[in-house]
Amino acid sequence: MSVEQCQIIELPKINDHRGNLTFIENNKHIPFELKRVYYLYDVPGGAERAGHAHKALHQVLVAMSGSFDVVIDNGYERTKYHLNRAYYGLYISPMVWREIENFSSGSVCMALASHFYDESDYYRNYEDFIKAIGE
Description:
The chain is mainly beta. It has a single domain (about 5-135), classed as Jelly Rolls (Sandwich). About 5% of the residues lie in helices and about 40% in strands. The protein contains 1 helix and 10 strands. The protein has one helix spanning about 125-135, and strands at about 5-10, 35-40, 50-55, 60-65, 70-75, 80-85, 90, 95-100, 110-115, 120-125. The strands form 2 sheets. The chain has a 5-stranded antiparallel beta sheet, with no helix packed on it. The protein has a 5-stranded antiparallel beta sheet with strand order 6-5-8-3-10. The two termini are about 15 Å apart. The mean pLDDT is about 95. Pfam families: FdtA (PF05523).
């Protein structure tokens, strides 16, 4: 997998003087059918989240509030994205290691996932992930 396959997706944004609205539709704004939504919040300063890769799951991360950095790694290249707008999502393809760091105070990270939770889909150890890439 190439880190170039992981990219920022601009989501629809409807501007209104009463407040903006962004929506996400399956297979239209994100390149997969949505099966699960979860979010990270109240992350303590200096803490890191993620630190894993998925075998089959596709994912989009969105900074719903505040900001954070996402480091993606395919075993050969590493790229860092700074997310800080609710109308931008970072698409992460399968077999890409991800780490989320540098959370601002009050930040909320929403994750859109292509699969229901399945622990067997995870590589939680970086060395196991690197070994799988080489197979």
